[in-house]
Structure formats: structure tokens, C-alpha cells
Amino acid sequence: MMSSGPPASLAMAPEATAAPIAAAPATARVVTVSFHKEQERRRRETWRLSLICLLLALALGLALSAIVGPLLLAIAGGVLKLAALIGCGDACSHAARGIGAFARDEARLLLAIVDHGGKAATLDAKLAVAGELIVFARVLAPALIAAAVAWIAIRRSLARAGMQELVSATHARPARRDDSKERQLITATDEMAIAAGLLTPRVMVIDSGVANAVVAGSSHESATLLVTRGLIDRLDRDQIQAVAAHCVAAIGNGDQRIMQSLLATFQTLGLFHTILDLPFRWSAWRALGRFARATFDPRVSPTAVAAAARGIEATFAPESIAPTTAYMVPLLPFRLVTMFQRLVLTLWCALVVSWPLALMWRARRYLADAAAVQLSRNPDALASALSRIATQAGIPAGGEHRDYLFIWGVGRRTAFDRYGVTLPMHPRIDRRLKRLVAMGATMGAASGAPAGAVPDALARLRRVLAFAIFGVIMAPFVLIGALFALAGIGTILSISMLTVLTSLLLGLGFLSWAFGA
Fold first, then answer.
1. Angstrom distance (rounded) from CA 58 to CA 1
2. End-to-end alpha carbon distance in the chain
3. Does residue 38 register a pLDDT over 80?
4. CA 288, 294, 299 angle in degrees (round to 5)?
5. What whole-number distance in Å separates Cα of residue 46 and Cα of residue 423?
6. Distances (CA, A) of 308 to 35, 228, 284, 444
7. Residue 394, H or E segment
8. Residue 415 host element (H or E)
9. What gap in Å lies between CA 255 and CA 114, rounded to an integer?
10. Strands 173-174 and 202-206, sheet pairing
């Protein structure tokens, strides 16, 4: 689903090691690392976290397919029944009855698996149950195939739009060469793109007093660098170049492609939930229509693609739950299942999916910082830029829905807050500065402290003792918190299993009743 290997453009940059820490005495306790080692570490971390995200997404997809699989079979059976009524003949009727017989056999097999699984004590018995599960998994195949097709289509539409809606949403304009500060930005971006072996991205300015920068575009060929006027007014030439280097590094590392793949995964889940909401709210029909047009019509604008995606994402918002009315009473069992699906998805994302997603995106920010040091050969400039803008950063108007892409994250708004992912997507500034110090930034530039200031042995001893005492006091509370976390995960798994079994039994029972005659 995601690729995070070393980009050819950055890999071609000349080999070098991190610059020595200027003005720091030999006794300073600073662990140095080359920017190449830092990039290798962050790429390995991205691969590991990407694999975890993929496995969790597959788990969510399997849970959702428990209701979507029977639904797709019901749609196919309905089409066959309709075709038989308008003259298709016995072939269509026989195929519809085959769906009913298949559902009846699968329901019996599911009940047998539940019964055998509770009694399996030996290895042979457990292997037999595993074999039955593999056979039963046929009922999930239609939903998994549909999910794969939907993911590819959504990923293509996101790549086509390239998040370029940010340009119009933030009212960005082309950078002016007759303005000295904006000319510095254009020149710095040209230099960093040449150093990375990339095409120079289009440079645009957002007339906003907040300080921030973001890259739009699906690849290095269509990238656009958006920088707020507040940022370039507050930074000097070297700092502007360091910000440009970070953005160019993000382009070369493929951060936009990774985020599009993640968005496509969650929007696929949102698409299925929108389909499940069709009997209950008219807004689901409108959202599905806009989404279908944005996905399959190549002429739609990036703004229309973004609006359609937000309509699909709205299915996870609490306000999308339609009130129960009289006409819903016959659909009440189906409604309860969809409500459980929504609950499971929210809990799963909030308590399980949040941390690998947040950690992976933070690793990408560290990777871009390390690549920026490689391109600019000036870790002090990036460290001082981060320090100067940290208290003045903000998301410009129109960029709130893409705030995770900006260099500086603000508050607790995150990439997937609609899905329940509430952890910050950006690393803390002090941790980014610490990594820059390890790559050669001076202590003064990174923290504002005098260069070479080293705590004495007594201060270090007091800090160690304080941590030890704090650890002894907090150990029982940490243990209790861990027990509560394990209990919460167990509850989520139990609810998930109950939802999956209920969804499958209701769906297969309906198919057997509707098409079994």
C-alpha cells in the first residue's frame, strides 16, 4: 500500500557526514549522527509502521466485509431475480437460488466453526477449525475484491487531484519576483530542487499572517510549494532556504503518495459505510453521487474531488446518524448492525490505529528534516527556523482539512480526526531540535542556550534521582493503566467479534430466506 524506500533523487546527492557541532566543547554530551544514518533509521521505522498500518487496515476491512459481503451477494441475487422476471429465463432463477443455497451452507459452516472452535483442544482439532475458516472465507471474497477495486479508484482520483484544492482553498497566488522576500523564496526553492535532482516546484504565497508551509501535488512533477507570507516575513534567507529544503525533501521522499494511500484506505471504509447508510439518510445518496462523479469523471476539478471526499468522510461524524423513524422499523436489525459497525470502527481507530499512524507520519517529518540537512548543509538554519516559528505557527484559512501536511502542526487537529485518530501527527518541536543537534546544529541555535553550555555532574545526578523517585511513585499507576488498556483492547476485540458474527448470521440468513426457494 505504501512505499518509503530511498528516493533516487535524494540518493544521488553527494555523500557527506554531519557537520561538527560548532562552538561546542569536546566534553559536551551530544550524541552525533550523520544525516544519512538518520534517514536510514527513519525509513526503516516507516516500513515497520507502514506494515502495522496495513495489517490494521486489513483487520478493519475484514470486519466491514462481514456485512458488505452478504450485501453484495444480496444485490447480485436481486439483479438475477429481476432479470428472471423480465425474461432471462431459468438460468437467472437457478443462479439466484444458487446464491441462497451458498448462503445456507455458509451459515451452517459458521455455526459449526463456532461449535468446533470452543471444543478444539488438540493441534489436529485446531487445524481442522482453521481449514473450515479458510473454506468459510469465500463469503468475504466479494467484499474484499470490491474494496480493492474501490481503493484503486479512490487512490487514482486522489492522485489526479494531487491535493491541489489547497491552492484555491487558501487563495494562494504565484510568488512575485519583484518582492525581495518572495524572490528569496523562489531562489532558495530552485537551489534545493537542483541539489535534490528534482524539477523545481511551483512556488505560491498565501497572504496570511500565520507562519507555515505545505506541499501540494501527487508527485515531484506536479508539486506546488505553498508558503504563508507570515513565514517569509519572519525568517532570514538561510532559514527560508532550510524550510524550502524540508519541503523539497518531502517531495523527493514521496510523502504525498504515502498520505494519499492512507486516505484512500480510510475513504474506502467511508464509502462502504455510506452505502450502508443509503436506506437511512438522503445525504448518503447525495454524497455517493458526488463521490462517483469525482472518482470516475476525469474532468472534475481538484476542489470537487476534495468536496466529494469530505462528503464520504462525513459518514464517520456523529451528526451523520439519522434519527429512527417509522419506516425504519423493518430495517431495525440491519440498522443495529451498522451502528455496531460504526462503534467498532471508532473504538478501533481511537485506541488501536491512532498510534502507528501518528508515529509513521512523525517519522516522515524526521526524515524530511534529515534530508533537508543533507540538501542545505545547514542544520543551524532549520533549527533556528523551527525555534522562531514554533510559537507563531498556524494553519491558514482554507487549509484546516489538510493541516497534517503542513510543516508545523497546530493544536490537536490531526489527519484523521473524523475517524477517531486523535494523536498529534507532528513530533514535538523540542524533539525535532534534539535530532537536528545530533546532526550538527549548535546548542545555541537549537535551544537558545549559550553554545557549549553543559550541565554539571551534580545537576545530572539530581535529574537521575528525580526520575528514579518519580518512576517508583508512578509504577503502580502505570501498571493499573496498562491493565485498563488491555481490558479496553479485549473489549474492542469482543465487540468486534460479536459484530462480525451477528452481521454474518443476519446477512446469510436473509440470503437463504430471499433466494433459497
1. 11
2. 42
3. no
4. 150
5. 17
6. 40, 27, 11, 48
7. none
8. none
9. 44
10. antiparallel
CB 440, CB 373: distance < 8 Å: yes
- For residues 233 and 181, the answer to whether their CB atoms sit within 8 Å is yes
Does residue 139 contact residue 504 with C-beta atoms inside 8 Å? yes
Q: What is the distance between the alpha carbons of residues 168 and 253, in angstroms, rounded to a whole number?
A: 25
Distance in angstroms (rounded) separating the CA atoms of residues 328 and 418: 26
**Whether pLDDT at 12 is above 60:** no
Judged by DSSP in three states, 41 sits in helix
Query: Rounded to whole angstroms, how far apart are CA atoms 487 and 495?
Result: 12
CA distance 367 to 252: 11
Q: Which helix (H) or strand (E) segment is 216 a member of?
A: strand 213-216
Task: Give dist(CA 331, CA 185) in Å, integer.
Answer: 59
Q: How many angstroms separate the CA atoms of 197 and 9, rounded?
A: 5
Structure confidence at residue 259 (pLDDT)? 82
Return the SS3 of 86. Answer: helix
Please name every residue paired with 213 in a beta bridge, in sequence order, or none if there are none.
227
C-alpha cell at 272: 462502504
Tell the residue number behind the cell numbers 535551544, with chain if given.
447
C-alpha grid cell, residue 176: 512575485
For residue 459 the three cell numbers come to 545537576
| Distance between CA atoms of residues 197 and 10, nearest Å | 7
Give the predicted TM-score (pTM) of the model. 0.76
Determine whether 365 is exposed, middle or buried from the number of CB atoms within 10 Å of its CB (0-12, 13-18, 19+). buried
> What is the pLDDT averaged over residues 311-340?
71
- Rounded distance between C-alpha atoms, residue 287 and residue 258, angstroms: 25
Please give the grid coordinates belonging to residue 113: 466453526
Number of Cβ within 10 Å of residue 331's Cβ equals 13
pLDDT in tens, 428-467: 888 888 888 888 888 554 444 434 444 456 767 777 787 7
Return the pLDDT at 311.
83
496 phi, psi to nearest 5 deg: -60, -45
Q: What is the pLDDT of residues 168-177, one digit of tens each?
A: 889 999 999 9
Return the axis-axis angle of helices 302-313 and 282-296, rounded to nearest 10°: 140
The pLDDT value given to residue 17: 38
Residue listed under C-alpha cell 482553498: 169
**What span, in angstroms and rounded, lies between the C-alpha atoms of 287 and 308?**
7
The DSSP code for 414 is -
* Amino acid of residue 153: A
What is the C-alpha radius of gyration for the chain, rounded to an integer number of angstroms? 27
Q: CA angle 64-50-65, nearest 5°?
A: 10
